[in-house]
Amino acid sequence: MNQTFDVQGMSCGHCERAVTQAVKALDAAARVRVDLATGKVQVETDQPREAVARAIAQEGYQVAAA
Questions:
Q1: Quick check: 5 and 66 in contact, CB under 8 A?
Q2: Less packed terminus of the chain by CB within 10 Å, N or C?
Q3: Rounded Cα distance, 56 and 66, in Å
């Protein structure tokens, strides 16, 4: 299932890697696309939306459903 999140606080490649790794720790097969300019993170995974948002938030970012 394709999920889109608004993520605040991402500004660089490190942020992109941190978010990607957090999602991949939850689901190694997930496809993650981060757009730093818009703050959008698209995730293709079978994991529940709440679990993905929580994984991203645990990295220190504010997450809202897009």
A1: yes
A2: N
A3: 14
**pLDDT tens digits for range 12-43:** 999 999 999 999 999 999 999 999 999 999 99
Question: Which distant-in-sequence residues (6+ apart) come within 8 Å of 62 by Cβ?
Answer: 7, 8, 9
What fold, for 2-65? Alpha-Beta Plaits (3.30.70)
Domain ranges in the chain are: 2-65
Q: How far apart are CA 46 and CA 38, in angstroms?
A: 24
Q: pTM for this structure?
A: 0.93
One-letter amino acid at 27 equals D
Q: Which contiguous run of DSSP H or E holds residue 24?
A: helix 13-26
Rounded Cα–Cα distance for residues 40 and 43 (Å): 10
How far apart are the two ends of the chain, measured CA to CA in Å?
A: 14
